[in-house]
Write a structure and sequence with these properties.
Blueprint: E1 4-11, H1 17-25, E2 28-35, E3 38-46, H2 47-55, E4 63-68, E5 71-82, E6 89-96, E7 102-112, H3 118-121, E8 125-128, E9 132-138, E10 146-149, E11 158-160, E12 171-172, E13 180-185, H4 195-200
Parallel strand pairs: 1-4, 2-6, 7-10
Antiparallel strand pairs: 1-3, 2-3, 4-5, 5-6, 7-9, 8-13, 9-12, 11-13
Length: about 210
């Protein structure tokens, strides 16, 4: 389950580009909290703490308890913008989380036990089809990641979503019930598997010199 983190926010007055620029000049980042059957609420966030959270990873699958001038709201980031030159936050959209609600998120796939995959040990290549899987998940049980175990995978094997344990209440949005998440292909030329056969092949006999007339 994704960890819940706390983040202080302040209600801001005014919307639009001019108001957003004014917030940034104060060293803060404009944001908006929406959804849950309530009106959108413009907010501002402290720039340094927000930057640390974004670049720490898993920002879009982290549940936050927003402290909005003393009022607590559970929310999850749905989008954020970065300055294309400075790579600093420009704006964040938060979705309110209400009890019993479900939402669609991208869940990272962590691949484990590569050392236990015979095909990888013999030089095969792991072709990852999905680094993340889009899923419907309960708002109170958002997974940080799902784990794909590569134990036993050999050349030309495929790992399907059905082989990956999913947290309770989580369901992929992909209509294909057993889509391929990754596959393992042999190295070009056959790799180590063909080496013994090549070594065992007898050397060709040298051609005899033609008899001189």
């Amino acid at each position: 389950m994704a960890e819940t983190k706390k983040l202080a926010a302040t209600v801001r007055s005014g919307t639009g580009k001019g108001a957003a620029r004014s917030v940034r000049r104060e060293g803060r980042i404009p944001a908006v909290l929406y959804g849950g059957g309530e009106a959108p609420q413009p907010l501002s966030l402290e720039k340094k703490s927000l930057s640390q959270l974004i670049f720490a990873g898993h920002f879009l699958t982290t549940i936050f308890e927003l402290d909005i001038d003393g009022k607590k709201e559970r929310a999850i980031p749905r989008d954020y913008q970065l300055d294309v030159i400075k790579d600093t936050p420009m704006h964040v959209d938060f979705l309110r989380l209400k009890p019993g609600s479900r939402l669609r998120v991208q869940v990272p796939v962590h691949f484990t036990n590569q050392e236990a995959a015979p095909g990888i040990k013999r030089g095969g290549a792991l072709n990852i089809v999905y680094h993340t899987v889009e899923m419907w998940v309960p708002a109170d049980n958002i997974p940080e990641a799902i784990t794909a175990d590569l134990t036993g995978m050999d050349f030309n094997d495929s790992l399907h979503i059905s082989a990956i344990p999913l947290p309770e209440g989580c369901k992929p949005t992909n209509p294909d019930k057993n889509f391929t998440v990754a596959s393992l292909t042999p190295p070009a030329g056959g790799g180590a598997e063909e080496a013994p056969a090549a070594a065992a092949a007898p050397a060709a006999a040298p051609a005899k010199d033609e008899k001189k007339k």
